[in-house]
């Protein structure tokens, strides 16, 4: 794989080769050289901006989102060896969900508890969608699912048969379906699912983009349909997410959410005292501006922390590496019982940590809730 610099180095060679071949046509030589260099620039830019499914999904996240979770259902199905399609039974879908849960790949999703219901009655589920993005902010929650070659007419028929109220606007162009009066219990009496998520109360389809949007708030969903992809997530969140590669599942938080939800503020006094002593021993700790953690296809977990500047990143790479091999107040035991610490690196303002789970420990879901390792305030 060529870096941008290597591409430009080759462009020089190609341009030089053109000069040597076409000595008698200097004007043509210049034109060919310019065209080649321009082509290389285009290719280099295309490579830099190319991303996986998570990058595509994050570009659709509402700008005000403070908590985002991504689930690559297609990748997860491949990872657990599940060959499913639209005709698979709810029981087969649950079997896949159970395997994915055992591999700590489902904590990022809001769909598992309703997966059988979705498969049997909605026409889409974790058995068929490519990926899922769930976002939360003070304004509302939104679920976005990508379903390749989506047949929106068929999905609309499914909702109609269940009793969803059809939208007043075009049902195939973002009109909102209302399922608040649907008696979901009548569809789950066979034991397919024990509960449904409120995140599928309202649903909209964007077939030209192969997207399904859902929410527990009608107005919020309608607003997001109109401005989908118009804004950008907070820059520290995208900086942290940009170091995750192409994961199977991932959490991305802004700094305030990280401070509030995965710090030790609600822990017992004894745990907080122990944490304070460990932090003092580890060195300087700065607040995290953007946080991300992901389960990788090979089984590792990668954590990514964005800071205010490069100096803070270098400082925290050292101090948090010390914390990552010590006790885990508030959770019990120690971090080195949960994972082997791999490479810790500071790149610009972002620190990444490679974590190798031990003894099938659920590192992703475990560390996303309250650990000393990511204490920020």
TrEMBL record:
Alphabetic keyword roster = Membrane, Transmembrane, Transmembrane helix
Lineage, highest ranks first: Bacteria, Bacillati, Actinomycetota, Actinomycetes, Propionibacteriales
User: At the top level of its lineage, which domain of life is listed?
Assistant: Bacteria
Annotated TM spans: 27-48
The molecule here is called DUF3352 domain-containing protein
């Amino acid at each position: 794989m060529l870096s941008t610099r290597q591409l430009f180095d080759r462009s020089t060679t190609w341009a030089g080769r053109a000069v040597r071949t076409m000595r008698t046509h200097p004007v043509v030589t210049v034109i060919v050289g310019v065209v080649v260099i321009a082509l290389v620039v285009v290719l280099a830019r295309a490579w830099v901006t190319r991303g996986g499914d998570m990058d595509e999904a994050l570009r659709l996240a509402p700008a005000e989102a403070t908590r985002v979770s991504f689930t690559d259902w297609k990748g997860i199905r491949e990872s657990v060896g599940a060959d499913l399609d639209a005709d698979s039974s709810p029981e087969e879908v649950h079997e896949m969900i159970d395997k994915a849960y055992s591999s700590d790949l489902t904590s990022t999703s809001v769909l598992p508890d309703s997966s059988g219901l979705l498969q049997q009655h909605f026409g889409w589920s974790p058995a068929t969608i490519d990926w899922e993005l769930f976002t939360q902010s003070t304004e509302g929650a939104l679920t976005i699912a990508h379903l390749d070659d989506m047949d929106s007419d068929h999905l609309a028929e499914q909702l109609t048969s269940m009793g969803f109220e059809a939208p007043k606007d075009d049902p195939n162009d973002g009109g909102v379906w209302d399922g608040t009066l649907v008696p979901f219990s009548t569809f789950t009496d066979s034991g397919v699912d024990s509960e449904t998520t409120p995140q599928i109360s309202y649903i909209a389809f964007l077939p030209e983009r192969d997207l399904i949007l859902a929410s527990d708030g009608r107005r919020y969903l309608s607003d997001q349909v109109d401005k989908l992809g118009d804004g950008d997530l907070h820059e520290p969140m995208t900086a942290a997410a940009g170091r995750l590669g192409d994961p199977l599942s991932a959490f991305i938080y802004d700094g305030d959410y990280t401070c509030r939800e995965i710090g030790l503020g609600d822990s017992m006094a004894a745990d907080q005292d122990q944490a304070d002593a460990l932090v003092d021993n580890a060195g300087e700790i700065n607040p995290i501006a953007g946080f991300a953690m992901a389960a990788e296809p090979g089984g590792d977990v990668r954590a990514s922390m964005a800071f205010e500047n490069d100096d803070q990143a270098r400082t925290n790479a050292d101090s948090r590496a010390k914390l990552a091999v010590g006790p885990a107040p508030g959770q019990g035991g120690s971090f080195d019982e949960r994972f082997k610490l791999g490479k810790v690196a500071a790149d610009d303002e972002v620190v990444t940590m490679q974590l190798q789970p031990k003894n099938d420990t659920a590192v992703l879901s475990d560390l996303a809730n309250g650990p000393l390792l990511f204490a920020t305030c």
